[in-house]
Amino acid sequence: MNGFQTTAIVLAAGQGKRMESSVHKQYLLLKDKPVLYYSLKAFEDSQIDDIVLVVGRNEQEFCQKEILDKYGFHKIKAIVEGGKERYHSVAYGIQAICWECKYVFIHDGARPFVDEDIINRAIDEVQISSACVIGMPVKDTIKISDEKGYVSDTPARSLVWQIQTPQVFDRNVIADAYDKLLSEEENLSAAGITVTDDAMVVEYFLKIPVKLVQGSYKNIKITTPEDLKIAEILLD
Hints:
This protein is α/β, with parallel strands linked by helices.
């Protein structure tokens, strides 16, 4: 057991429009179980102390019956309703964690391949840096485009990572960053700044360096029908 409390916020409030399905992507079946099941199972079986599940509007009762009760998850301490944007859902999740929590994991429920090794590496690193994200070095050359679609830069491939989740923070760090985000969201919108992940919030508002931690190329996010087919192969 750790000498500190850890909470995983698992985000399952997305609609998954690119999945081209009437069923939200986190509830689609992957080898006879919902996609969401796999990430919850990983945290349930890990050294994480408890879980806050963030779901879509009017989905709490469904998740209680079809996810928690059906599969016997005991670490889920709260099911909260998400918001309009991903960052709203994260903010509501942060508000629901217990006061004893020291470190917060934020994970996309549509990433079913998070595992014990990834979780353990993140726990080790966050104690040192207070802010870290899971990711992997890119395999392909990356080009930066200008507004007209021409290449404006080619960054060194050795310095470019594709970012995954979980993203892990000291509770005070992420809570402070999100408080600042919510107070400034109108200004960000007016400036055309889109919040795409949690590390960005910490980087932008607190200027705290965020450490990159190796994840897995297997740790994909299921976004399109093709991703679901790949996930089925990875489970075999």
